Amino acid sequence: MKRTFTHIALLVLVTLLPTTGAWCKEIQLDIRPGEGVTQQKKISDYFASLKGSNLDTDVFILDSGKPGATGLMIGGTHGNELAGTVAALVTVENVVVKKGRLIVIPYTNLSAQSMPDTRNAIAQKHLVQSRSGERYLNYGDRRTDPADQGSEDPDVYINPGGYVLKNGAESRNLNRTWPGKADGTRTEQLSHALIELIKQEQVDFNLDMHEADTPEKYTVNDNYDTGVNRRLAYTLVSHPDGLEVAAFALLDMEADTGISMKLEESNRKYRGLSHLEIGNHTQSLSFLSESPNPGQDRWRDDGDVITDAKYPLTHRVGMHLRLFKALADAYATETGKALVMENLPEYKDLMAGDIGRFLN
Ligand SMILES: [Zn+2]
Fold first, then answer.
1. Are 93 and 130 in contact (CB under 8 A)?
2. What is the distance in A from the centroid of ligand 1 to the CA of 80?
């Protein structure tokens, strides 16, 4: 595909009371595919019920035409976790695959991008200087827009694996709805569509890229149940089947970038998470990464999600990208099936300046 500029206009109709009429909100999500993209699809190509909905996101395929491994990069599961989305954008706009196949989804929960951040009220648009001039990065909310869910939030959410979440709004959290349901809510249908993609495209391994609170002000009381996750940053979570590949990848990662990450095995108690359910329901080795996002620290007034001195976007994007490459290399060593990527930025090159140098 030639270097084209794709502008996706997402129209969200919000109906107010009949007396006040209705108004329109337009979100423009900017993806500018590079020459390595060989095919562009929609998630509804794998599950037609999502066609035309605000969850029908773009899927980019970078195919070398040569046999090898198929890797999947999942960005933007949570709309307020910018580094995963930007890691995916940098990949779509730069990488050329030389062996095997790469599938990239930058805005996995597209609906979540249409809402402003409800956690810390981080601005929705962030100006960067790209190779072609000014460009905005979008920062959304954690969950699906209620207007796109197709049903009211329940009082408590019982997810497809039977796990009970006390906050019914978590029914709109894409990382609680795996492996999804064909006849479920829109968010459950999205998880189902992604499982279909992974099966149909025979994805060998996948990385779901997330962000969490920074490790600043960590306390021993932080845990999954309290919802304070300052322990999560710099963690690679692995499905039990992927532990060996994950362990080798983290050694490689530290040698490459100097970033030391913790390895955690999927906890079978917490159902509905991507790394556990994709691994359980498909043949794909499943991983989830967490980078530290100042924009998610509740104690900060105005976290800088792009140029924070300690946790800049370049550092966080570099962490996800180099980790993905380390996983691909470890997978190749273990199975003999390689995914070889050219023009994936080196960590030190990312850290040498602003993120816009790697965006079209
Ligand atoms: Zn997340």
1. no
2. 8
| Ligand 1: centre distance to CA 75 (Å) | 10
Which among 191, 91, 76, 93 is positioned nearest to 139, based on CA atoms? 76
pTM: 0.91
- CA 234 to ligand 1 center in whole angstroms: 13
Q: Are 206 and 278 in contact (CB under 8 A)?
A: yes
Q: What are the pLDDT tens digits along the chain (360 aa)? A: 444 444 444 433 333 333 333 333 445 699 999 999 999 999 999 999 999 999 999 999 999 999 999 999 999 999 999 999 999 999 999 999 999 999 999 999 999 999 999 999 999 999 999 999 999 999 999 999 999 999 999 999 999 999 999 999 999 999 999 999 999 999 999 999 999 999 999 999 999 999 999 999 877 666 655 556 678 999 999 999 999 999 999 999 999 999 999 999 999 999 999 999 999 999 999 999 999 999 999 999 889 999 999 999 999 999 999 999 999 999 999 999 999 999 999 999 999 999 999 999
Domains of the chain and any CATH numbers: 6-358 (3.40.630.10)
Q: How far is CA 318 from CA 2, 91, 311, 349, in A?
A: 26, 11, 11, 9
CA 155 – ligand 1 centroid, Å: 22
Task: Measure 210 CA to ligand 1 centroid, in angstroms.
Answer: 4
The alpha carbon of 61 and the centre of ligand 1 are apart by a number of angstroms equal to 23
Rounded distance from Cα 81 to ligand 1 centre (Å): 6
Kindly give the distance from the C-alpha atom of residue 23 to the centroid of ligand 1, in angstroms, as a whole number: 30
